[in-house]
Amino acid sequence: MNKLFNQPLSIINIGLPRFAESVQAQGVPTLHLDWSPPLVPHYSHTRNGTSIDAANQEAIERLLAGRPMIVGLGLARDVIPNLTNHTILHAGPPIEWEHMCGPTRGAILGALVYEGLAPDPEAAATMVDELHFAPCHHHHAVGPMAGVISPSMPVWIIENATYGNRAYCTLNEGLGKVLRYGAYGEEVYQRLHWMADILYPILAEAVAFSGPIDLRSMIAQALHMGDECHNRNRAGTSLLLRALGPALARTCTNTEYLAQVLEFIDGNDHFFLNLAMPAAKATLEPAEGIEGSTIITIMARNGTDFGIQVSGAAGQWFTAPAAQVDGLYLPGYNEDDANPDIGDSTITETAGYGAFAMAGAPAIASFVGGTAQDAIATTLEMYTICFAEHQHLTIPALEFRGTPLGLDVRLIMETGILPKLNTGIAHKHPGIGMVGAGVLRAPYQSFADAFEAITTW
């Protein structure tokens, strides 16, 4: 015993840092482990005996089996199920006009002018009582930022080749003063009409000529080239152009239009975002409705509310007020101009990329703020609240470790760690558009309410 106590001490302190500080003050080498007990008990079975882990494993297997493919393009009213001529889809959980934020209202007003239903936004505002508003997610679709889809907008058609389900998303307009950021005006309408009249038919013909394009493979490659496929899509956009280039050249006989299409895509690094999002949606939908599963299948924001859906409670929204973004702002703007968090693009994080893959996209720091080390730390932290790791999407900087996959409500509540998101920032008033980009944590209450529901299963 005397021999033991005469040995030099190396102490590991678990829990309160004050104990470590007391020992360190006496010159004893001490390693402090930042640990606290779980905030809530770990649930392994539902009340009827269903294994939650087994249900979650089934959800993960469905996610990993998904093969999202570009199979075509079409007009929203022709391809999106149950979309009427008086329906406008928006990002996030359900919301009515009187509670909508400025960017969502701006995008809807601009869409009505684009559709030819009103001569200007002021006239459009008098028509809103005649419309039906619905979340994109209720129609197998997703929309970035304000996320508005109106009947005559062209959309990508993404099919999960494994399960046969389809998802939809509009074509990406770019950054700045664009409809998806709630902007309207002549330049916005002209761009949308050019996209519908020139870009859409040329892309549709090229995709029909080329045949289905594998998006899971393309996303995997983009992650190896510095994208995280949410706020950095430069590699994904380049890969798309490579895949479509020969078909575009062979099917478009108007060389001026072809040049315009190539210039537009080349000048819009975010063009691939509107493919990464429906690829995630098509991958996640087969994991919905698994009894006992606590895997999150939807995270979305409408600029007023943040909402999630959980596999075992498919169709039920758990909402909380949307949070403010900690961001970098364009010249002339600051946090006083910013709308709260908005858009369906958090479907990327839900599917295992986006901010969860920031370790593979250090350049994202220059767009959303922070450092390359912050990007790595974000990914490492997100493993803590995910049930599994992706087998097909890997991160070179982490020795090709799979990205965090399968957000688990139980783990979020046990650890107190909230999902970290990166996003663009829209001006809070309609008609203006993008003012910055940044990062934030998802709001706690959505996960707390979902967990309370889980404990009753």
| Average pLDDT score | 93
CATH superfamily of the largest domain: Enterococcus faecalis V583 domain
Structural class computed from helices and strand pairing: alpha+beta
Shape: globular
Q: Would you identify the regions where 5 or more consecutive residues have pLDDT less than 50?
A: none
Write down the domain tally: 3
Widest sheet, order of strands: 7-6-3-8
CATH class of the largest domain reads Alpha Beta
- How many E-type strands? 17
Beta-strand portion reads: 15-25%
Helicity level, as a percent range? 25-40%
Number of helices: 16
Q: Can you tell me the CATH architecture of the largest domain?
A: Alpha-Beta Complex
For the biggest sheet, the summary is: 4 strands, antiparallel
What does this entry look like structurally?
The protein has 457 residues and is an alpha+beta fold. It has 3 domains: 2-33, no CATH class; 52-61 and 290-454, Alpha-Beta Complex (v583 fold), CATH 3.90.1700; 68-278, Enterococcus faecalis V583 domain (Enterococcus faecalis V583 fold, Alpha-Beta Complex). It is 35% helix and 20% strand. It has 16 helices and 17 strands. It has helices spanning 2-5, 17-24, 52-65, 76-79, 102-114, 121-124, 186-210, 215-224, 234-251, 255-266, 273-284, 347-350, 365-368, 372-383, 409-415, 444-454, and strands spanning 11-14, 30-33, 68-75, 87-90, 132-135, 154-160, 166-170, 213-214, 296-302, 305-310, 318-321, 326-329, 342-343, 386-395, 401-407, 420-426, 434-441. It has a 4-stranded antiparallel β-sheet. Strands 11-10-9-13 form a 4-stranded antiparallel β-sheet. α2 links the parallel β1 (11-14) and β2. α8 (215-224) packs across α9 (234-251) and α9 runs antiparallel to α10 (255-266). The termini are far apart.
